[in-house]
Amino acid sequence: MKKEEIKEMSTADLRERLEQMEQEYRQLTINHAISPIDSPAKITADRRMIARVKTELRQRELASK
Length: 65
What we know:
The protein is mainly α. 83% of the residues lie in helices and 0% in strands. It is elongated.
């Protein structure tokens, strides 16, 4: 997902997607702790994508005040 795609999504969709991404991220880190995954860079990429979505949600929250 790119920044433009994130900005086009509705707030409800972003919150739903954020929950899903966080759950996948937690599972990925657990799996990586048990046995190394093929691409550890995916953990970093997922964490950054979660941060992008949280940033967009926060910007919308502040803009609505």
